[in-house]
Amino acid sequence: MSPNARELGGIFRETKIGNALKMRDKENMLFSADENKFRAELRDFLERKDAKKIEHEIYERDFYPREHYEKLGEEGFLAPVLPVKYGGRGKLVYEVILAEELGAACVPLAWIYSTSSYVYATIARHGSEEQKRRYLPALKKGANIGAIAITEPEAGSDVMRIKTRAELKGGTYVIKGEKRNITNGSKADILLVWAITNPGVDPVEGMSAFIVEPKAGMSETGFEVIEDYKLLGGFPGTVNSHLLFDEMCVPGENILGGTNEGAKIMFDELSIERTLYAAMLVGEARPVLELAVKYSMKREQFGTSISRFEGISFKIADMVTRLEAAKLMVYHTARLIDGGFDAEKESAMSKLLASEAFYEVAHSTVQILGGRGLSDEYPAEWAFRMARLSMIPAGTNEIMRFIVQREVYKEQKGKEEE
Predict the structure, then answer these.
(1) Does residue 129 come out as left (phi exceeding 0), alpha (psi in the -120 to 50 range) or beta?
(2) What is the CATH architecture of 147-260?
(3) Which residue from 77, 245, 277, 326 could staple onto 353, CB 3.0 to 4.6 Å apart?
(4) What is the pTM of this model?
(5) d(CA 103, CA 96)
(6) Count of Cβ atoms closer than 10 Å to residue 335 Cβ
(7) Which fold is adopted by the domain 5-144?
């Protein structure tokens, strides 16, 4: 007996999110009662809104699901990391739960969220009170979408090579340069833009971050979307942009955290970005793994279910183990950040583990499905492409390994000097 496409091929739009490798009581013990309640309410909302059906519609029609993202805000699920006074819960772990569940439920919504969350978390931690009052409410409601503008054509992993400049002229900063590979770039209401404000010193000491509103008089402000382009593994409905700042004027009060504080802000917030991105990848891998398990139980060869062959079942064992390890690392990192600890090493480990676990899950799922895994009859082939993409955003896996080894040697040197 062979499973058919109608039965399994639509698993992403038919699977009940709460049933996708459903959490057991022994897993619930890792979270507080309120955290479990938040997850349960979020899953219930995503199921009632039929997020998997939305995901399938976006895959078929390739539209930007802004209105669906806004509903998350209307229901109060967005921005739980914000301080209580701004309507949040004040803890990153809730944000990680949100990232994981969105990744499992609807990939394009998760990608919109991935950079918006960085924007509101950064403003909450480094913005002035006036900036918080002005920008956080709309970001929390989902009425505004955020994007991070750091990467440039000649500055990827080496972020200190950015060439974008911001010159202060009579109380206004004039920004000139370009940014590339910017998720949500052409759709964003709020951009966090990094630029050099003091070219005479090391970029670590001469870089600043700005809150930019590109849709406020687009052509008049010297802002241009050069191109939105598709990526290997980029899900339909997601946007990746090349942006031009041609002497765009930004009010002086829109500088974030103070002049020449940009590098400090960037490095401080990258741990949060990587942790949330890793959580999203853990979520994206969940339904892919479930597809492999269900298919292997139904597919028969040589007179029996292929799940009875160790060549298949051991793949499942490895997939589950690596994904669970990545998930635990992600939540461990979130707890460290919530506790006020530096988590640069742990966030790099989280992103590294999650992306490589996702890749193994997707790769093995294609292998388990065999020829069907290569066709668009099942979602395995595009999950494989998404998993390959995941090893580059939020810092390449090579950079993640560099950070981990650097921190390990730094810790050892500190021990020896005590």
Answers:
(1) alpha
(2) Beta Barrel (2.40)
(3) 326
(4) 0.92
(5) 11
(6) 17
(7) Butyryl-Coa Dehydrogenase, subunit A; domain 1 (1.10.540)
